[in-house]
Every structure is written in C-alpha cells, then in structure tokens.
Amino acid sequence: MRRRLSRPALSALAACCLLLQVRAQAAPADHITLCFERQEVRPWRTLDGGGLNFELLAEVARRTGVTFDYQSMPWKRCLEQLKANQVGGAFAVSFNRERMALGAYPGVAPGASEPHADPSKRMHIDTYMLVRRRGSRLDWDGKSFRNLDGRVGFQLGYSVGDFLRAQGVAIDDGSQRSDELAQKLIAGRLAGAALGGGDAARLMRGPYGKRLEVLPLPLIEKPYFLVLSSALVASRPQLAARLWDAVEEVRNTPAYRKREQQALGASPAGGLGVHH
Prior knowledge:
single chain, 276 residues, alpha/beta, two-stranded antiparallel ribbon, 9 helices, globular
C-alpha cells in the first residue's frame, strides 16, 4: 500500500533537496586547484607546502571559505593548463601583456591601452640577478650590460626573457632548471645567467658556489600575483575579487608582515626568490 507524505513532510523534503542542490553547485566553484612550479624556492615555497606563499594562501582560504588544492608541475605546463582552464589559478606569476591571454590578473581593466596588474594585490615582490663565472669581466651597472661576450641564459618560460630581449642581448632559453644554467656557465657555453634571487643564493651555497658569483645590482624587480583562470573569473567574478582582496589584506596584516620579515631576514638571498 502506497503511503502519502503529509504536507509538512513534503515541504521539509523539498527544502532538503534544494539545500543539497545548492551545496552541490557551490562546492566545485569554491574548491580551486592552483598550480605552481615544481621547484623549491625559499623563503617563498617548498615542495612539501611550506614557505610564505603557502602561509599567505592558507590564510586567504580561511578568510574566504575557499579550499585550495595544489599541483606542482613544470612552469610552462602550469601556464598552459591555466590558459586551457584546466586549473583554477597559478602562483606566483609576474605580469606582462602577453600573459594576459593566460588568465586574469587583479586590477587589469579590459581594453586598457596600457594594462597593468594592481601591485597592491601582489603576493610579494622579487628580483632577477645576473650570475657569471668567477673571474669573468661581464658586468651589469643597473642599466646596461658591459663586457658581454656570449649569450645570457634563463629558464624556459620565465618572464625575464622579455627583459633580456629588450636589452638586445643574445639569449639561451633552452634550460628548465637553474642547475642546468650553472653547468652551462661553468662549461663556458654561456656568458651569464639571469636567475631569481632564491635560485642564485641556493647555487652559491652548493658545489657551484666556488666557481660562480652573483653581481650585486638586480637586473629587474617585479611584483608577483595569484593569477586566476579566465573561466573562474567569468563565472564567479565576485569570488575572484574576494580572493585578490584577501591576498592584499593578509599580506598587510601585522602577523604576516612579521613572518615575512623574519623569513627574509633568515634567507641568504635577503628575500630574493620566486622568479617567473
């Protein structure tokens, strides 16, 4: 015999179904996969999820109610997956006009003639340094190269390539790891290498340090951002804005500023690190 539900029971069942539907729709949007380069760069990140980038993002997640899943991979693949909307975002990414096709930066106005990401929404600021063989006459005076006899190498897909091309120097972008650039330098296949400060400091602490030196003036200094996929921003613009606002808020909290100062003070690079 079929049993009829009372009207209150039907109402309760309908409300329950509606709640489950809303939760099912909300869960994927608030569960975001972020990719980052499979390389340890202190003090910003370690491959096991340590470092200032992860500390900042953990607090952003807590404040916004978003869950981040992290995937490490080669940097070029990370950017390709961002462009294809296969991940919800990538970090830490420096800005240039060409990279606007990869995803969305905070503060970039659509159609702007001179687009710029909003530096107040950055995760951090960092630099590239010029590394040479010990005894080399190659120099950088803060504006131009001197005694450059050969190519300057950098890692595949890294934005410092645009800077080097603008300088009119011969380049080599055939390496994916900083250790490969160090080996090319020592072998005389490169005149110099443009490396992020964290990588440069790591090399100097290791076996290559006796044969290389880092010039004191940085090649370039840049802010680095959490870049979100175009699909995420198109479907949830308010969520994207909340995330970028939270990055700024967390970075400016006394607690995080203190952590950053402590970590940078303990870093042999003086805080120079991630460099994409």
